Amino acid sequence: MKEKIPAHFAGRRFYAADTWLKEHFGRKTIKLAVDGGFTCPNRDGSKGVGGCTFCSDTGSGEFASTIEEQLSLYARKWPSACYLAYLQNHTNTYAPAEVLYRKYTALLADPRIEGLVIGTRPDCLGDEILDMLAELAGDHFIWLELGLQTIHEQTAAAINRCYELSCFDRAARELSRRHLRYVTHLILGLPGESEEMMLDSVRYAAAAPGLFGLKLHLLNVVRGSTLAKTHPDYTPFAALDDYVDLAVRCLEIIPPHITIHRLTGDAPRPLLINPPWSFNKRTILNRIDEQLSLRDTWQGKKSGCVDKGSL
Ligand code: SF4
User: Fold this and answer.
1) Which residues pair with 218 in a beta bridge?
2) pTM for the full model?
């Protein structure tokens, strides 16, 4: 029988997070990047200093501000959209559970906010915090985002991630056991990694228990990061099309039930150093769509997973 693109992709060639959100909430859903006022264990000295080498001094939160500021950007254009508060920069579970509970419930008390997205690290998810999150998720829409970046310990040490892969494995298991949705972040193009190593990271992350989604970031060298000092001229892919080729091959091995939340980098243009073509997100995404079509391929085509709806 001829393989078909899964119907739940809704006309696309991968399972975009927007498609899932529209289906879930019944309307366009926008994440408002909110600054939760946290830091990271590899910035404040408890695990390390200086942060991850690719991360800017805002903790990768160049777009984060307050709910009011964020709503003023979107509410006029999308008055009937569904809004989620996204605690994006730094480590948003890096505090005692009762402090976190107060912060999260304050955001969720806003009638304009329908749920919470919490960006964090797997080493900041102790049992007490996980239990509190599971309780909160009983009444509210929540997902967590885990910065894994790579499964390779040598690269993890080089980027100053300051936790081991086994820590991610435990967090994934515990989140899944509590039925908490989570999205894993990976970076494509970290110094010292071959394409095979990147594909191995994608395969591994995609097989984690209960995974809801993946974010694939193209490595951006940004001003204010350690990489900008140590590797200012580093360009992970010689040309945009090399990146597009790898992104397509990554999609092919990701099972079709996993939602895709990002397929490129997102650094603001004034901060971006390398690769210079990365600011052109729309072109990169269009090329990925174009290549998926030209190769007549799609997410999961080589994952070995059968999408029952397509048979
Ligand atoms: S990438 Fe995440 S964990 Fe690493 S320094 Fe930046 S905000 Fe902290």
Assistant:
1) 188
2) 0.95
